[in-house]
Amino acid sequence: FISFFFFFLLSSFHPNDADRPLRTSVGASLQRHKRNWVWNQFFVLEEYTGDDPLYVGKLHSDVDKGEGKVKYVLNGEGASSIFTIDENTGDIHATKRLDREEQPYYTLRAQARDRATNLPVEPESEFVIKVQDINDNEPKFLDGPYNAQVPEMSPVGTSVVEVKATDADDPTYGNSARVVYSILEGQPYFSVEPKTGIVRTALPNMDREARDQYLLVIQAKDMVGQMGGLSGTTSVTVTLTDVNDNPPRFSRKSYQFAVPESLPVASVVAKIKALDSDIGPNAEMDYRIIEGDGLGVFRVVPDKDTQEGVIILQKNLDFEKKSSYTLKIEASNRNIDPRFLSQGPFSDTAMVRLTVENVDEPPIFSPLSKMVVSEAAKVGTIIGTVSALDPDSTNSPIRYSIDRNTDLERFFNIESTTGVISTAKPLDREANAVHNITILAIESLDPSQVGKGAALITVMDINDNAPVFAIEYETILCESAGPGQVIETISAVDKDEPPSGHRFVFSLTAETAGNMNFTLRDNKDNTASILTKRGGFQRREQAMYRLPVLIVDSGTPALSSTNTLSIRVCDCDLDGTPQSCGTEAFMLSAGLSTGALIAILACIIILLVLVLLIVTMRRRKKEPLILDEDRDVRENIVRYDDEGGGEEDTEAFDMVALRNLNAVRDSKARRDVTPEVPTLYCSRPPPYKITPDNGIFREFIWDRLKDADVDPSAPPYDSLQTYAFEGSGSVAESLSSLDSLSTDSEQNYDYLSDWGPRFRKLADLYGHSDSSNIFSS
C-alpha cells in the first residue's frame, strides 16, 4: 500500500505544471526541457513495529536510463542513521522506529551523480519526510493533583476549579488529541464540564460543620471519549471554607462563681464561653453586660485567643456591704453574614451570679494628710495622728508601729494604741528635709493581719546654719597693684532656705577694719569686692596676707561667721598674669639659683644618713655577742624559785577572790576558749550566799549580754557555775603517797638508789634500810 501510494504520487505528477519552474538537463543551452525531479514530500507512519525497514518512497531522475551510470545520494536530517537510499534504484527506507512527538518531520537533500566521475548530473533538491501521527499518547494533567476551596452553602453551579489535560498527539490530524472530561469520584456533590474541565458544585447547602473536605477523581479521554481512546486521571481535593452561618450559644443559661472580697482591682473574676461552630473571624465574639446590679463593679471583655468572656473586677468588694451580684451577659458574633440573618439573631444571653466570700482583711488606714514639724522641735513633740480600722465585722483593736526599714535612724515614735506620732530625736532639715515613713497597723486578735499606711513628714527650716564662703578662694595680689584696685569678688552660701531667699551682709571684722592694706565693699547682691588701700606691695616684705571677713545672714535670729581670705603677693607681667609668688620667688631673687638649692638639700640628706649610721653602730656595741646558755630566746619561759606552800599556804594567794562574785565580775572571761565546766557537782550547796547590789548585778549581766551579742564566733555559754565550797571528805580517801609508809605495803623501793643522785632523796625516804631511822627521829 505504501509503495503503491508513493508510486502513484510519482507517476501522476505532470512535469509541465505551470507553477513549477523548468529545469535544463546537463549540457542543454537554450532549449526548454521537461522537469526531471518529480517529488515534493513523503509520508511515513510513526511507531512502525515491523522487522524489515519501512519503505518510504522512490527517487528517480530522467537522466537515469537504467544503464547504471547514475547513482543517488541522500543528505540532511537522519540521512544514513535513520533513512537510507539505494544508490542504484533511489528507493528510500526508514531503518528506525519514528516518534512524531519527538520529531514530526525531517528535511533531506537528494542528488543524482555520475557514477564514474561523481559529478552531479542534476542540481541538489530538498524534500521533506513527514511522520504521520497515530493515537499513541494518553492525556496528562500537568498541573495535577489539584487543591481547591469553595465556600460552604454555595449555590449549585458555583465554579470550584478548572482542570486541564494535555495530549501529545497531533491536534490537526484526526481525533487523537481531542479530549473530553468526566468525573469518576465526587458525585453527587460536584460535576465537571466535558469540554472545558471546569469543576462546579452539584448540591446546595453543603455544610462545612458536617463535612469540610471532598476528594474528586477527574478523567480526561481522547478520541472525543469514544471506544479505544486513551485516558488519564487526576485528583482534586476540595475544601469547604467557613461562612458565618452559626450563631453563638451558651452551654448553660446560668453560671455561679465565688469571689473573695480581698481580690485586687483589675483581677480576673471568672470566664464564660459561648460556643460557635464556625471558625476564624466568623467565630469572633463580643461580650457585654446588659443587665444586673454589678454594672459598675464588673466588666466583661473577650479573650482574642479563646473567644471567652473574661469578667474583670473594677471596684473593691466588701462582704459587709454587699455579698452577691447578678449579671446578665450577652455574647454576639462580631462579623455577621447578612445572607443568614433569616436564621435568627446571632447572639445569646446567660445569667451570672457572683457570690462574695468573706475574708479576714487587714486594717485599712484613713486618708493620711501631710504632716509638718519644725527642725527645732524638741524630742517628744507630737507631729500628728494616724488611724486605721478593721473592716471586718469583728472590729479587732488596732496596734500601731513604725516600719523601721523606713526610719532607720529612729527619728520618730508612735503610740501603739492611739497612733500619735512624735519626735524621738532632734531633726535636721539640712540632712533630711522629708521623711516618708511606713506605719503598720496590726490587729490585736489576729497579728497576721497587717495594714500599711504612709506618713509624709516635712521638716520646716529654721536659721541654724551660718553663711560661709562659697568656695576656697586663692587671691593673687600683683606687686604692681595700685590703690583702689579690686583684687577679688567673694560670695557666700548658706545651708538654710529662708522663704524670702538669702540676703548676706559682708564686712571686715572690727580688728581689721582699720588696716592700711585692704578694704571691703558690699555689692548688695550677696557678693562683696576686696580692694587695695595702697600700692607698693612687696613679696620680700610680706608674701602672704590673711584678711578676716565677717558674713551675716538675714535669718531670725541672724547668724554670722568669720572667714579668712588668703592673699598672696606675686610678681606679675604687664597683663597682670602672676609669674612667681611667695618665698620661693624671694629666695630666687636674693641670688640663690636652683642648683644651689639642690646642693644644700643633698648636704642635709648626707648628714642625716651619717647620724643614723652612728646611732646604729652604738646600739650594736651594747648588745652581748654571746648569748647566755640558760637564756633561750626561742621560748617564753618565766622561772620562779619559790615552790609554794600547798593547800595550807593561805598567805601566797588571796582565797577571798574565789568566793567574791564582784571579783569574778571584774575579770573578763576568755571567749576564744570553751570554759571548763565541772562534771562532778558538790554534794551540798555553798554554806553562804552573797547578794550583791541589784544595780551592779544588772550592769554585770548586761555587759555579758552585749559581749555575747557582738561576738559571732563564740558559742552562747549561758551557764555560769561558781563553787565556793571544796568539801570535807572523799569516798576514795587520800591519794597521796606520803601515807604509804604507815601501811603494810610490801612494795620495795630499793631500786630508786640505782637511778642516780637525782632520786637519792626518794630512795632515802622509801628505802627499807633507812626508813626506820628517819621517821623515828
From TrEMBL:
GO annotation, biological process: adherens junction organization; calcium-dependent cell-cell adhesion via plasma membrane cell adhesion molecules; cell migration; cell morphogenesis; cell-cell adhesion mediated by cadherin; cell-cell junction assembly; homophilic cell adhesion via plasma membrane adhesion molecules; morphogenesis of an epithelium
CDD domains to which the protein is assigned, alphabetical: Cadherin_repeat (cd11304)
Topological type in the membrane: Single-pass type I membrane protein
SUPFAM superfamilies for this protein: Cadherin-like
Listed Gene3D superfamilies: Cadherins, TCF3-CBD (Catenin binding domain)
Cited PANTHER family: CADHERIN-23, CADHERIN-7
Name recorded for this polypeptide: Cadherin domain-containing protein
Organism per entry: Cyprinus carpio
Designated gene of the protein: cdh7a
